[in-house]
Amino acid sequence: MKKLLRIAVVLLLILVVVIGVVIFMLDGIAKSRIESATTTMLGVKTTVGSLNIKLISAQGRIGNLNIANPDGYKADHFMTLKKGELGVSLSSLLGDTVEVPKIELDGIDVMLEKQGGKANYEAILANMKKGETQPDPADPQKTGKKFMVREIVIRNLMVHVDMMPLVGNVTKLDVPIEEIHMTNVGSDSDNGVQMKELSGTIVKAVFTAIAAKGGGILPAELTTDLLGGLSHLKGVGDIGVKFTGEATKQLTNITGALGKGVGDVVGKDAGKALEGLGGIFNKKKTDEKK
After folding, report:
1. Residues 245/210, Cβ–Cβ less than 8 Å
2. What are the extents of the domains in the chain?
3. What is the pLDDT of residues 163-197, one digit of tens each?
4. Backbone φ and ψ of 107, nearest 5°
5. Which of 217, 212, 196, 110 lies closest to 156, judged by CA?
6. Residue range 109-159, pLDDT digits in tens
7. Can you tell me the distance from the alpha carbon of 5 to that of 258, in angstroms, rounded to the nearest whole number?
8. DSSP H stretches of helix in 43-119
9. C-alpha to C-alpha distances, 10 to 1, 2, 6, 19, 111, nearest whole angstrom
10. What b/e sequence results for 216-255 when a residue is b if at least 16 CB atoms lie within 10 Å of its CB, and e otherwise?
């Protein structure tokens, strides 16, 4: 009896070790896929600080994701993510398409800057145009899992703008956006979207929110460039994006240099940029049908 008990204990320990190794491997594989897919899509190095997948609860946590700035720019990053959480449908894990009820991302920091007459977001948009047609080195045959995400929520987004000049003597602005909502990402396809496409969709939504909330605040050149660049990317018109937070009332780093004109600048209707987005996206979808 004691021998059987010892054997049972040993088998249990072996099972625990095996499960631990499997989970560790899953974390490593998922971390590598996110880094590879996002790097391919954006054309700049992406690293993930931590990733933890819990099979029992079907949840995952990601921390300290860093998307590098393109070469030639001074900021140490283009975009960072403090933390994120997601849940998955266990029944879909064995299939080709993973169903994700919700992804929550909290604490995104974006640096928009210009050096030598060229903005870093222009480089990112150009990279994304190329990335849409380039295979992910980790999955060149597109045989990996695809994803269908019912809801993506981005909270506490801060956009730092360093373009000279902005208005008057002001060269830097911080524009907070409280929340961005996306729905049914990948639902327009029966097979869902690849990891790189999911990463690209999130960046597209961030750019969309910046262009819309920054209308009348940020330089017209910046919003025009963002709208123009977005209009050349795939699937932008299919993203259901909503965002909250009055960025016009929360701007920081505005000095007295604006003087009396600050009311005129900040008081403009930020929604005009969103109207422009709708026009561009609708036109793009119409053109694609021709």
Report:
1. no
2. 2-289
3. 766 555 666 888 888 888 888 887 766 678 888 99
4. 85, 65
5. 110
6. 999 998 888 999 999 999 999 998 887 776 665 666 788 888 999 999 999
7. 79
8. none
9. 14, 12, 6, 14, 53
10. bbbbeebbebbbebbbebbbbbebebebebebbeebeebe
